[in-house]
Design brief:
Number of helices: 10
Strand content: under 5%
Structural class: mainly alpha
Radius of gyration: 61 Å
Shape: rod-shaped
CATH topology of the largest domain: Serine Threonine Protein Phosphatase 5, Tetratricopeptide repeat
CATH superfamily of the largest domain: Tetratricopeptide repeat domain
CATH class of the largest domain: Mainly Alpha
Distance between the termini: 153 Å
């Protein structure tokens, strides 16, 4: 295997060979003087020194370049670490931002749902009572159903107050004729016959075509009977048969009229 030789070594080797050649050839040594030999050696040394100096300078430059490269690599590594840290921070900020946006969207959805729910509580709703369909406010519907619930539970004084209050609060309500009917019945249950008669008559005057009208007329006759006003009761029953002849109340009125004879 061929190995490369250091230039200084090669130079010294060359000088040694040259000296050997001078010694080994007496005939040629005579041709050169001591001065020439010294000059040759000096020149050779100068070449060797010059070559060594160049190599030292190249080595110094290489070492400097290597140091600069190492510093550059360290700076680059530091920059990479900084970028990684900034990227991690941005990733964390993005994740937090995504969570904040999701929370905001959920809150907006909840708020919108709450607004819709509140608006629905004020929007009119359709109801069907006694064969009639009409629109009422949710609060109006709630109050009517509460009063009717008290009547059905047998709380007649409370139902009487609730229906009277309902009629005052909602004078234009579609529930009016039905509210008057149940108010009259609550008053009949509490033996307030005169007031019951007044409310049944109001029903007949404002809603004579109501399905509750025949029953209201029959209830008037019942109140008049309780008040011992048989003549007025008979007249009411006769009018009921004339005005609502096909109603169930008219059938009951005919039976009562027959028993009065």
């Amino acid at each position: 295997m061929r190995c490369s030789m250091n230039p200084v070594v090669r130079a010294l080797s060359g000088a040694a060979l040259a000296c050997a050649a001078l010694v080994s050839q007496p005939s040629q040594a005579a041709l050169f003087g001591d001065d020439e030999a010294r000059r040759a050696i000096i020149e050779l040394r100068q070449k060797v020194d010059s070559q060594a100096q160049r190599q030292a300078e190249e080595a110094s430059r290489a070492a400097e370049d290597l140091g600069q490269l190492r510093r550059s690599l360290l700076d680059l590594q530091a920059q990479i670490e900084t970028l990684r840290a900034e990227q991690a921070s941005l990733r964390g900020q993005n994740e937090q931002l995504a969570r904040d946006v999701a929370d905001l969207q959920r809150r907006q959805k909840d708020i919108a749902q709450g607004v819709d729910d509140r608006l629905r509580r004020f929007e009119p709703v359709k109801v069907t009572v006694d064969g009639r369909e009409f629109s009422v406010d949710p609060a109006e519907k709630k109050d009517f159903e509460a009063a009717l619930g008290q009547f059905r539970q047998g709380a007649f004084p409370q139902a009487q107050s609730a229906f009277a209050d309902f009629i005052r609060r909602y004078p234009q309500s579609g529930y009016m004729s039905t509210a008057l009917f149940w108010l009259g019945n609550a008053q009949y249950a509490t033996r307030d016959y005169k007031e019951a008669i007044a409310n049944f008559k109001t029903l007949l005057s404002v809603a004579s075509d109501s399905p509750r009208a025949p029953e209201a007329a029959l209830s008037i006759a019942n109140c008049q009977t309780e008040l011992k006003d048989t003549k007025a009761a008979r007249k009411t029953l006769e009018d009921l048969v004339k005005v609502y002849p096909q109603s169930e109340a008219a059938t009951a009125a005919r039976d009562r009229i027959a028993r009065m004879k």
